[in-house]
Specification:
heterodimer, A: alpha/beta, Rossmann fold, 2 domains, seven-stranded mixed sheet, five-stranded mixed sheet, 12 helices, 14 strands, globular, B: alpha/beta, six-stranded mixed sheet, 11 helices, disordered N terminus, binds thiamine diphosphate, binds magnesium ion
């Protein structure tokens, strides 16, 4: 067990899986010679050579689609988007090709591809560069959507994603690349589709993902000082949702606050809230609260952007409201 | 406008000449090309009929008039080479050797269809025949083709990919991204523009700046080749160059083939954008089936009696495909939940049962 950053953990996962399976290759803008826009692919070109660590032109639609074509032929591409905000110009390839070819062909093809890269707001890069698109991709039936919040999960889940025979959107968060934590050495697999309780509590359940888990944990610490015991669930995988973990926690706390950086309308939290009220109505003692990114394009100025992001203060207020 | 004689344009230095020469076909093989074209036409006519009877629903884009393009080009390929196209895909599928039965059954939405009734007219697939679709988004298949060729090169399989697209599709960004990637990475892929002069109701001159379309190869330093799409021999000859370039030197090309579709864009097209005369003239001037049949007569490779027999067989095969489609069962409703996810084999399954 060593302490390492999220980017190092992701790098280990890529390196180990490329070592293990010749069919795995990494492709994207600046992944090779530049060593990665966020240094996630640092050293991989030197280790695996240009056949398997491939610098692309700035053609997201082109190389995302190329990856899908290669996956149809049995290769296992890892396609890096410099940020997921840029995946929109490749949306057709991800949704209609990665997302539908197996189905449209009556099951003839597997599409073992991972799309991955950074995402998220809070770094004052404005509306075009700040998206958290997990809800967009979770809306596509055949896509698996993973959003790790900690280095150990990042490593273990990326290894799983690469080993999956199905298309996976692996959505990292830029704010977390430098976050350090313990990561098991070598073979370390985290199963897809399992949430993780990051803090146990009895009074209210905070359901979060990715960077929002850290906001929820911060809020839970402060709530504890006020005598409120909050349980924090990190979903880790957005799709498929781990309903058993969510519902068990709701049965214990009877109160829920959802924390997500997503914009509110049809954000994943809306789906979680629906599932809870539908399946555990009798366990709820208060309406489900949601703390989301505000429904505005992401602004640049610090004070404006901070107002838009989910914050500990907003989470605390929501938890107190649900307990009132 | 009559299609010009084939001309070849190469940007800058020629990226190498192909060593092998186009194999000369035997009379039997030539007759077989004709047979394939006739089969496609008769199949499409039966599909049109079934569509009018509302047995086929949705969009149905017919290939009538363009038969020599698919048949000529695919005849230059090896069995293991890959083919991918857009939604006007029945002709390519048949030329690739998929059965009329599985194709017609797909149009009828039957479980015996080539995509188990889940794809429909625009989404034929046969992995076994290396026919990788059938793609409904204009231009969306062009990056996939680059990826298939990327995999062929990665695996050193020696196979090549042919990707068809329309004259309208050349204006999609994805196509240009794919051309650049193919040229930059020297991928063994041939992009074939089937220029039938119209994208739905929009003629080439109303949608594309720059003529001929093959000039778009220049910007990417790719070989640009043109062929006369009504002449199956010319298509074969020009495609052969492109295929050899891909096979022996791993170089992509752009091939523009001038052709014409006789029917509407789809079965739901009233066709107000062109005159009946234009269509009739084109049929008379350069019908791919008539042209080739007459050539084979002249060369004494075919007799009228043999041709009648071919016609009879192809009509019978098309009719048989309709009978097969009609008598095939509908998909069981629970198959709607199948074919979404490939089984996992490197980890336990992690998805809850669908619909739970
Ligand atoms: C992205 C996208 N835009 C529009 C359409 C609707 N559409 C289908 S076919 C077509 C015309 C394409 O023409 P062309 O590329 O020349 O091919 P052809 O139909 O002549 O074979 C259009 C506009 C579509 N399917 N996809
Ligand atoms: Mg056209």
């Amino acid at each position: 067990m060593a302490v390492c950053t999220m980017r190092e953990a992701l790098n280990q996962a890529l390196s180990e899986e490329m070592e293990r399976d010749e069919r795995v290759f990494l492709m994207g803008e600046e992944v090779a010679e530049y060593q990665g826009a966020y240094k996630v692919s640092s050293g991989l070109l030197q280790k695996f050579g240009p056949k398997r660590v491939v610098d692309t032109p700035i053609s997201e639609s082109g190389f995302a689609g190329l990856g899908v074509g290669a996956a149809m032929m049995g290769l296992r591409p890892v396609v890096e988007f410099m940020t997921w905000s840029f995946s929109m110009v490749a949306y057709d390839q991800i949704v209609n090709n990665a997302g539908a070819i197996r189905y449209m062909s009556g099951g003839q093809y597997s599409i073992p591809i991972v799309f991955r890269g950074s995402s998220g707001a809070g770094l004052q890069v404005g509306a075009t560069h700040s998206h958290t698109p997990e809800n967009w991709y979770a809306n596509v039936p055949a896509l698996t959507v993973i959003t790790p919040g900690f280095p150990d999960d990042a490593k273990g889940l990326l290894k799983s994603a690469i080993r999956s025979n199905n298309p996976v959107c692996f959505i990292e968060n830029e704010k977390l690349y430098g976050f350090k934590d313990e990561v098991p050495d070598g073979e370390w697999i985290v199963p897809i589709g399992q949430a993780r309780i990051r803090r146990e509590g009895n009074d209210v359940t905070l359901i979060a993902n990715s960077a929002s888990t850290h906001v929820a944990l911060g809020a839970a610490g402060k709530l504890a000082a006020n005598g409120i015991s909050a349980e924090v669930i990190d979903l880790r995988t957005i799709k498929p949702l781990d309903l058993p973990t969510i519902l068990a926690s709701v049965a214990k706390t009877n109160r829920v606050v959802i924390v997500e950086e997503n914009k509110p309308f049809a954000g994943w939290g809306a789906q979680v809230a629906y599932e809870i009220q539908h399946r555990s109505f009798d366990h709820l003692d208060a309406p489900i609260e949601r703390v989301t990114g505000l429904d505005v394009p992401q602004p640049y100025a610090r004070v404006l952007e901070q107002a838009v992001m989910p914050s500990e203060e907003r989470v605390i207020a929501a938890a107190e409201k649900s307990l009132a | 406008m009559a299609t010009a004689g084939a001309k070849k344009t190469r940007s800058k230095e020629k990226p190498g000449k192909s060593p092998a020469v186009l194999p000369i076909l035997t009379a039997t093989e030539r007759v077989d090309l004709l047979r394939k074209m006739v089969l496609i036409r008769r199949f499409e006519q039966k599909a049109a009929q079934a569509f009018m009877q509302a047995k086929i629903k949705g969009f149905c884009h017919l290939y009538i008039g363009q038969e020599a393009v698919a048949v000529g080009s695919i005849s230059t390929l090896h069995e293991g080479d890959a083919v991918i196209t857009a939604y006007r895909d029945h002709g390519h599928a048949l030329a690739r050797g998929m059965s009329a039965r599985e194709c017609m059954a797909e149009l009828f939405g039957k479980i015996t269809g080539c995509s188990r009734g889940k794809g429909g007219s625009m989404h034929f697939f046969s992995k076994e025949k290396h026919f990788h679709g059938g793609h409904g988004i204009v231009g969306g298949q062009t990056p996939l083709a680059a990826g298939i060729a990327f995999a062929q090169k990665y695996n050193q399989s020696g196979a090549v990919t042919v990707c068809y697209l329309g004259d309208g599709a050349v204006n999609q960004g994805a196509f240009h991204e794919a051309l650049n990637l193919a040229a930059l990475w020297k991928l063994p892929v041939i992009y074939v523009i089937e220029n039938n002069e119209y994208a739905m109701g929009t003629s080439q001159h109303r949608s594309s700046a720059g003529d001929p379309l093959v000039k778009r190869a220049d910007g990417y330093d790719m070989a640009g080749i043109t062929a006369h799409g009504a002449d199956v021999d010319d298509v074969r000859e020009k495609m052969w160059d492109a295929v050899q370039l891909a096979r022996t030197e791993s170089l992509p090309s752009l091939v523009e083939i001038k052709t014409y579709r006789y029917r509407g864009h789809s079965m739901s097209d009233p066709g107000h954008y062109r005159s009946k005369d234009e269509i009739e003239n084109r049929k008379k001037e350069a019908d791919p089936l008539a042209l080739y049949r007459e050539r084979l007569y002249k060369e004494k490779a075919l007799t009228e009696k043999q041709y009648e027999e071919i016609e009879r067989q192809c009509v019978a095969e098309a009719e048989d495909s309709v009978a097969f489609a009609e008598s095939s069962p509908e998909p069981e409703v629970n198959t709607v939940f199948e074919d979404i996810f490939a089984p996992e084999d490197q980890m336990p399954e992690f998805r809850p049962p669908i619909g739970s």
